[in-house]
Here is the input.
Amino acid sequence: MDERKKFIEIFTGLTRAYGQTQSRHKNEAGKLEAKSWIVKEDLTEQRWIDHLDGKEPSLGIIPIRDDNTCTWGAIDIDTYDGFDHKKLVSKIVEKKLPLVVCKSKSGGAHVFLFLRQACSAKDMQMKLAEIAAWLGYGESEVFPKQIELNAKGTGNFLNLPYNHPEYPTRYALNDEGNALDTLKLFIEYYESKVVETITDVIIDKPVTEKKNDDWKGAPPCLVTLASMGFAQGSRNQCMFQLGVYLRQRFPDDLEDKLDYYNSKYFDPPLPSREVQTIFKQVRDEKYFYKCEEPTFKIVCEKIKCRSRKHGIGNSANNDIHSLKKWQSDNPVYEVTHNGKVIILSLDQLSNHGEYRKQCIAQANESPRPMQPAVWADIVDQLLKAMTEGDVIILPEEVTAKGQFRDLLKTFLENNGGAKDRQDVLQGMVFQHESYLFFKSQAFKDFLKMKRFTKVSDSHQFKIFTEFGGNPTKFKINNKAEHCWKIPANFINVDFSLINKDFTEEEPY
Here is the structure.
């Protein structure tokens, strides 16, 4: 295959729009400034050729296609000056990741992942975010930026490499960090890195932890990251996470401990002013672990973390290991606190003060008070960790709606058989053809007698319409009376044989 055609095949993406970039000059920070825009027209082969021939503006491709899939994606490490590309390549090779590093227009790096079989844009995005965090660039952008496109949407484009045929400034690097400065060399390297499917991309995680007292009771993510070495690009995030851990373990010595861990585990250590800023943040108990940040999400072990003294389930002496939900009109939640089952309403789960009361009443334990924001973070983590098996759907008959339905059927069956429409005024149910007619007040009186108060008047009407019911009016003694009607097949009794006929007016 022609090398240019192979290049087009490798970087295929959205075809009804593309990006273009006109290079300019470097700014004071060393970044090459440029003007970029999206062209909303079909991408032609000539645009690809112009790009490879070094003609300006250069070409950018949107990885996500109209079916919301893609065969490639990239991590955009947007560093402007002095970026060590060889060090990044060495790290990727060491971890045996099937990635291709290209120098970007800005002087940073585009780290590409190529697939032979397309995957969803969502899966590509999640995998690249995972890899970025693992490499220590969790704050970098990943492409595709979108997981879905609407009919008019175009998504974001990424500038392609090899914008000059002889002396390219945007080229790939081989496993030794040397330039692959021709299309032929790039394609050969691509063939050695492309994988069949997204599931073939596996990240090997360290299996050993640091065995020293510094990490006693710490979340597993911190232990793992410390064993790897806190990477550039995520050190401030890691220091914040570390600060939350140290606040719980050393509440009276937080500032000194932050300095100690900074000097021992961060290479190079963070500047003192940055440590001070983080100290001022984390000493406030409203701040909790940021488990959803990519840096920590990739090495997260929620189940293990809940068992750690200073993990997500044990903050402020609250040891919650699991959460189950019994789904109904008023859901009931079951949590395991220090091995004891606690049953909670929604309000009790949402409020830590109410939760503490239930721990006292049901488990004879009194967790320490905590800030609402901290408790909200813990509950949020518990909810996100729930699986399909943790949600039990209760039968409808035990719900308020189910009980309302059964009472309505009982009322209709017990009060049916009206021989004339005038009987409706006496609280009876009259059948005409395929409908049952009755006064709504008669049914409300019946509910009051049964002491049923679980459904409000407005909600009663809503449920009634869900059963096929509607309000209507008809004449009784030359007067239009408001009634409810519902299909007769709602119950198993047919009253039509004993009813006299009448003509109802149009419902309102």
